[in-house]
Structure formats: C-alpha cells, structure tokens
Design brief:
This protein is α+β, with helices and mostly antiparallel strands. Helix content is 46%, strand content 20%. The chain folds into three domains: 4-62, Nucleic acid-binding proteins (OB fold (Dihydrolipoamide Acetyltransferase, E2P), Beta Barrel), CATH 2.40.50.140; 65-127, 5' to 3' exonuclease, C-terminal subdomain (DNA polymerase, domain 1), CATH 1.10.150; 148-198, Helicase, Ruva Protein, domain 3 (Orthogonal Bundle), CATH 1.10.8.10. Helix 7 packs across helix 8, helix 7 packs across helix 9 (185-198) and helix 8 packs across helix 9 (185-198). It is globular and about 45 Å long.
Amino acid sequence: MIAFVRGPVAAIGVDSAVIEVGGVGMQVFCHPGTLAGLRPGQEARVATSMVVREDSLTLYGFADDDEKSLFELLLTASGVGPKLAQAALAVLSPDQLRQAVASEDLAMLVKVPGIGKKGAQRVVLELKDKIGAPSKMVAGRPLQATEAWKDQVQAGLVGLGWSARDAEDAVVAVSPLAAEGEPSVPDLLRAALRVLSKA
C-alpha cells in the first residue's frame, strides 16, 4: 500500500490533486480542506490510503496521518464508502468526529452530507469502542492570505455539490469568523457547511 506521496504539486482540481512522484503524476482524491493546504508548484507530503476495487485503484489523500487513520476507520462502518468518509472529514475535524461518536451526538453526525439518522446511529454503534478520545492536538493550517480563503472555501463547497450561489452565501455568513482571528481554511469550510446544513 502507498502510505504517503511526496513531490511537487502539478495540478489541483475540484476534488483531487496531481502530485509528481519520480516523474509520474499521481492523482490523489482529497477533501477541500486538504486541497486548501496545497499550492501548485510547491513540494507537498500527503498521507494516502489506497482503496482497491475490481475496476480501480484509487488514492485518497489527507493533511496528516490522523485524518488518514480516521478515514480508514470510517470505511469499516457498514454503508460508509470512501466518498462519504471524505465528506465526514470535510465537515468535521478529527477531534469533532471522535467527540460526536464518543458522545453519541447524532445531530453533529447528520450534518455530514449523505449521513442520515440511521447511518449516524450505525456509525456510533460500530465505531464507538474503536475511535478513541479527542486528542486536542490537531491544529488547523493558518490562512495563507487575508482574503484567499474565500475562493478556497467557495470552490470546496461547489466541489461537495452545493450551487455557486449557496456557496457564495455561506462564505458571506462565515466571514465574521475570519475577521475574528486566524481560523484555518478547513475550519472555515466546516463552518460554511454547518451554515448550509441549517438552511
């Protein structure tokens, strides 16, 4: 299995990045929070998990090994595939996910697109004894530039299936959070997703 890839970022798309490894461009599917930390032309190290299917070998990428291990744990739950596991990590930080499962907070889990109440109950039932306690050590990446986060968050929301108009409205709604301090792009993206889930 491929545990991580390291190399210059050749391209960044809506749901994936191409990282050059030894002259080969490897497509790595990432959630918007991970993509927000990558820059074309810059060296990157992305933790990866390979999902093997009959007709495909797909690499999924993560900002760190903690996200990767949670992704792999989520895949062990009934009815959770790679896209749903990625969506969970896009909406909830690793610690928020651990907290939600450990405390059986179904309301938090159903904020993930694609997870309904029954799905949330199944995730809690199957993972509660495996997921562990929140670490309080996973820090978000600081914003690269004062306003750069807006385009990144909007692109991330569109990549998750929201309309451009909804994405724009959510960006406006979370702008006060960006003004308060130094939230990371993934944190702002999660806040925007929470806004949209209430709409």
